[in-house]
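ok so I'm stuck.
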Amino acid sequence: MNNEKTIKVVNGWVMLVVTLLLWGALAYTIYLVAQPEGKANPTPYVWAIILEGLLASLASSGFFIVEPNGSQVLLLFGSYVGTVKDSGFHWANPFYTKRKVSLRARSLNGEKLKVNDSAGNPVEIAAIVVWRVTDTYAASFQVDDYESYVALQSETAVRHLASSFPYDGEEHELSLRRNTDEVSTHLQKELQERLQLAGVQVIEARLSHLAYAPEIAGVMLRRQQAAAVVAARQKIVDGAVGMVEMALQRLEEHGKIQLDEERKAAMVTNLMVVLCSEQAAQPVVNAGTLYN
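replied:
not stuck anymore, here's the structure
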């Protein structure tokens, strides 16, 4: 059998009454044997005491409890019998070996890992993985220790994720910093494929820490600042050119001011200085003409 099988067992409260009756019968038999008048042939009573004691001991060892969102995996001499998932007080064959497997959701807060991204830059990365066991057979028998297996495979998946994407790539490609949702989806999918063997479902997987390694953090910060300045300047210039074009077009449409090429060039220069300068422009009053 390579799949989980859910089984029903005897109600524990019913068997508790039966067990108490067996212990009561044992006590009564011992009481009869201990009477002063004795018995002509005590052998039947001795065998009754042995049998009742054996049955009562076996019955007492069959009780177990299943908590909400918990389970007990039952084995009979090494063979898988089934899994009990109903919460409550139960009784099963005393010869069953019981393994407790929790079905609750668990959170794995991974440690910071130092990995090279796809561009070769050393980065620090960590992830939080929320998972739970859905197949108790696979969790118990397909891997040696499913909790350690989840931790190890999570670390491997995070390392592979970091080496598959750049920390901060171009606009047209996925990057760890900008495309957090897409990267997290990719991580969850890869983790689910890795943990399927252990009967584990990955509920959520997200990056909890992402940064350049300390030895290059300063250089990369200056690089990001330079890229931001260039992008801002490009947007400012594009906007200024559009505003100048619109101003010239409006003047020509109304026809109130006729400008030759030299005057247009002077206006363009002045407008570009005003619009692109980082400091407020200082007006200059020209008392003459453009040519004086």
